[in-house]
Every structure is written in C-alpha cells, then in structure tokens.
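Hey, can you fold this one?
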Amino acid sequence: MEKNTYKIQSGDGIGEVQIADEVIAIIAGLAAMEVKGVASMAGNITKELVSKLGMKNLSKGVEVEVIGTTASVILSLNLEYGYSIPAVSAKVQERVKAAIQNMTGLEVLDVNIRIASVELP
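Sure. Predicted structure:
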C-alpha cells in the first residue's frame, strides 16, 4: 500500500492536521474486527495475535481511497462459519463508516466487502 497523507484540518487552528491512509485502514480494520462473526482480515492475523504483533497488521486486507474530504474503503474479510454473510457484512459496513467518520471527519462514500473465506471453529 502506498503511503499517502491527507489534510483533514487547516486554517482556524494553530496548524494543520494530516492523516495517513494507513491510519484510516487501521481504523477500518479495528472496527471490522469488533463485529461478531468476523474471524480476521484476509491476509491478516487472528484476533488473539493482534495485541502481540501490533496494530499495523490490521491494515492488511484494507484498501482506502481518499479524494478531497471523502473516503472509499474495500475490506477483505474471513468470516466465522455459521454467521449470516449479509448480516455480518451490513454490521461491518455500519461500524467502519461510523468509526472513520467519527475519528477523521472524512465522509465515507462506500464500504465494500469481499469475503475471502469462511473459517471453521
């Protein structure tokens, strides 16, 4: 993933605030992992290893495109067996959109989900 930064605040404050696309990807990954039924990010580690290996691993399986003050996100997920794919996906979309908008102020245009696999217990 290319490292890009985006200005999210300037002008009236003391200075400007810039955010890297990897930060947006980490926010999206954390929000997705909070949803019951999500086993892991595709191409990523399991929930248990996140705390040991660090947050940067959560950006794997996440693509972010920022244009101006809007963002589009694509997530590749591994789901747990037995959960409704449409229900889990809708919950992930809601959580990711809310997390990015609340933490960055960017408007999220879309959150697209790719189901990479279903993991057995």
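Helices lie at 21-33, 47-53, 85-104. Let me know if you want another pass with a different chain boundary.
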